[in-house]
Structure formats: structure tokens, C-alpha cells
Design goal:
43% helix; 13 helices; 4-stranded antiparallel β-sheet; two-stranded antiparallel sheet; 275 residues; 2 domains; single chain
């Protein structure tokens, strides 16, 4: 409500006398919340209307924290687009995988479930914070639904050569010599951090780089097992996870402390930069 009240109290720019003040206020809130309040049968015309009917409007226009749904597409259209993306990505992953693994490569089952539930997984806090400091893990559907390129063609382009993935995706801190990547792709990037989904195994529990077993080093009984893993690389840090559930437990507060402690992310600074 802080930002809604700010928009209500904002004075119009005298030089923009032709602009409806409420239109400018709603544009600010739409940018802040990544929501098009003009979509649907009952468009929201003013921040006062949004404030007074917030619970009802939120259910139809806004998403849960950290996720996005493109409501301008019907549920059937969204489902079709996602299936096209998954199928094309899976085909391209098989083409780029190690020859010995191609028959094993299927789109990660738990990632498929996530994709069918949301249009984007963009991290904690308001969308404007995510743009400045975050990194969306899953925004593929959001991007291709918003574009004009055929989905299958677009999805295939997102899966680069395996050598590139193996060179740039690091598992373990420092990078462990015993990880072997057999397939994968860079699923997202932003603000000097990158997310990968890789089909990988560890050929030994530890190596000369990583020393004794630690957080990023798998246990002895998992050695040699090929499975999908979700990896975040920063310039000086790595986080890797064996399941989407493990990843989400970490991602729900990803960069949240950095955002909360930074003065430029305060309400007044956000308002000044957007309005």
C-alpha cells in the first residue's frame, strides 16, 4: 500500500498538461508491479480504485510474490506454448548431449511441473527490485509469449553447444574437477549471475580443488549417478541443487538481504526513479 498511496498523492508534471494524471499514476504502479491494469473487462483507472478494491483486484491482476502469469493469453494458449517450448528444448538437448547419453535425456520432470504452474519465476520482492538486483530463474515463457518468433525455433536457440555449458557452468566452490556435464543449458542470467540446468554426475566424491566433503560436494553413494541439477553461478559463488524443491527453498530469499539493506531500494528512491 505504500506505493499505492505514493501514487495517489503524486502531483502531475506541469509540463505534461495533456496527460491524465491518473494515467501516469497507473503507469507507475503497472511498471512497479509488472501488471497491466487495463487488461480485462473492468480496467483499473486510478490508484484510489486500486486501493479501495485491492483484495478483489489483486486476485485477478496480480500474482503471488516472485511469479508471473501472462493473463492476456488464455489458459489453453499458455499450455500449448509451454508444451512447444518443452518439446523443442528436449529435442535440442538430445542433439547437443554426449552421444552415450542421448537416449537418457528427457526434459527435467520437476522443472516441467514448475513451468506448467507459472509463466515466470522471478525472485523475491517487487518486480522492479528483481530488475535491479535479482536474476529470474525461469522467464522463458514470459519472453517468448511476449515476442513474435516461433516458439520451437526460439527454444532451440536457447540451448547452446555443450562445450559452452561445460566451460561456463561450475559446480562446487572452488570448481570441482570431478563433475562431468553431459547435457544442459543456461536457463537465465542477470546482474553478474547465471542459472544453468545440467545433466551431470560426479566421478569421485572430492578432488584436489574442493578438499574434504563440503556443502557443494555430493556424498559417496551418489558418485557416478547422472541426474539433472540446478546451478547458480556468481563471480565468486556457486549454489547447486538436486531438485526444484531444494532450489526453491534457497531461491525464495535470493538477494533479499542485499535489496533490503540498500538505500536506493527504499520507497522514496523507487518512486523518484519511476514516476
Amino acid at each position: 500500500m505504500i506505493y499505492i498511496n505514493m501514487a495517489i498523492n503524486a502531483l502531475p508534471d506541469p509540463e505534461d498538461s495533456d496527460e491524465d494524471p491518473d494515467e501516469g499514476r497507473m503507469n507507475f504502479l503497472g511498471s512497479l508491479l509488472q501488471s497491466d491494469f487495463e487488461v480485462g473487462e473492468s480496467a483499473i483507472k486510478s490508484p484510489v480504485e486500486l486501493r479501495d478494491n485491492f483484495d478483489e483486484i489483486a486476485a485477478s491482476c496480480l500474482d503471488l510474490d516472485g511469479v508471473v502469469t501472462l493473463r492476456r493469453f488464455s489458459e489453453d494458449e499458455r499450455k500449448r506454448m509451454k508444451e512447444e517450448y518443452i518439446s523443442a528444448t528436449e529435442d535440442r538437448l538430445r542433439e547437443t548431449a554426449l552421444d552415450s547419453l542421448r537416449d537418457q535425456i528427457h526434459f527435467p520432470a520437476d522443472l516441467r511441473i514448475l513451468i506448467n504452474l507459472v509463466g515466470a519465476l522471478c525472485g523475491p520482492k517487487l518486480p522492479i527490485f528483481q530488475t535491479w538486483s535479482g536474476c529470474a530463474f525461469w522467464n522463458e515463457v514470459y519472453e517468448f509469449m511476449s515476442g513474435h518468433q516461433p516458439i520451437a525455433e526460439w527454444a532451440r536457440e536457447r540451448v547452446g553447444p555443450l562445450d559452452d555449458v561445460r566451460s561456463n557452468c561450475h559446480l562446487g566452490t572452488p570448481p570441482c574437477e570431478n563433475w562431468e556435464i553431459g547435457a544442459g543449458w543456461q536457463i537465465a542470467y542477470g546482474n553478474e549471475r547465471w542459472f544453468y540446468v545440467v545433466y551431470a554426475r560426479k566421478t569421485a566424491p572430492t578432488c584436489s580443488n574442493c578438499g574434504p566433503p563440503q556443502e557443494n560436494v555430493i556424498s559417496e553413494h551418489e558418485t557416478g549417478v547422472w541426474k539433472w541439477r540446478y546451478v547458480m553461478n556468481e563471480v565468486a559463488d556457486v549454489a547447486s541443487f538436486s531438485t526444484i524443491i531444494e532450489f526453491l527453498g534457497w531461491y525464495k530469499s535470493f538477494r533479499e538481504d542485499d535489496i533490503s539493506d540498500h538505500p536506493e531500494f527504499g520507497p522514496s528512491s523507487v518512486f523518484d526513479s519511476c514516476f
